[in-house]
Design goal:
Length: about 230
């Protein structure tokens, strides 16, 4: 068994990298893959870079070059659910691209992708593992819900209610998860997206993001470790 782990930035990888043993490196198309073990299970960790194109490209290269049975995306996100606080964790039970818009060429909804649909569902087995592990993670506030992705850094407080209303009461927004989900879905690879809330819709996102990124990433690593141990 091999588990692929994707993060957008170095800070989001650091806590995962510290969990890995027997690490070797391999470069493919200027991407650095860290190959090692967590709880005696083979893992491949890679930084994809920011945005949907980077993340989709990296996901396909990962799948093409490593025999991964699961893909997990970890990282930070901006909370748009008013109940979320910095440091909370959102598990994406479904993903959507909230900037994808082809309504002008047919009978589509905002976010709907032709021949694919509007939402991409995460792997039930991985979701169940986390749900059954929540009691072991009492110090972390874990929420399940829709994660919305777009190719823009979210810093518009007034837009948060619109996104929540349009997209299934989305919990948080980020820039990679739904693209990773789309590639995994098309390639029949089970996936899940785990996001630590590093900023909230309060008008100070640029400040919050850099200050709390490491905290959010460490929380993701704790949950990632539990998943790997129980797969």
């Amino acid at each position: 068994m091999c588990i692929g782990i994707i993060a957008a930035e170095d800070e989001e990888m650091l806590a995962i990298k510290e969990l890995m043993k027997e690490v070797t490196k391999k470069s493919i198309f200027n991407l650095k893959f860290y190959i090692g073990k967590i709880h005696d299970k083979d893992c491949v960790l890679v930084k994809c870079g920011v945005g949907k194109v980077n993340s989709a490209r990296t996901t396909q290269i990962l799948i093409d070059n490593f025999d991964v049975q699961y893909v997990v995306n970890v990282g930070s996100a901006g909370g748009i659910d008013p109940d979320l606080k910095i440091g909370d964790i959102v598990i994406g039970d479904r993903l959507v691209q909230y900037d994808f818009d082809i309504r002008g060429v047919g009978d589509y909804e905002l976010g709907e992708i032709c021949d694919l649909g509007k939402y991409i569902e995460s792997d039930k087995k991985l979701l169940d593992i986390i749900k059954n592990t929540k009691n072991e993670l009492k110090d972390i506030n874990i929420k399940f819900g829709t994660i919305a992705s777009a190719d823009k850094f979210f810093n518009d407080v007034e837009e948060a209610p619109r996104i929540r209303k349009e997209f299934d009461n989305s919990k948080c927004v980020e820039m990679e998860g739904a693209a990773i989900a789309q590639v995994c879905f098309l390639d029949n690879i089970p996936f899940i997206v785990i996001r630590g809330i590093s900023d909230v819709a309060n008008g100070n996102n640029k400040i919050d993001f850099h200050e709390y990124l490491k905290i959010a990433s460490k929380q993701c690593a704790v949950i990632m470790e539990k998943i790997i141990k129980k797969i």
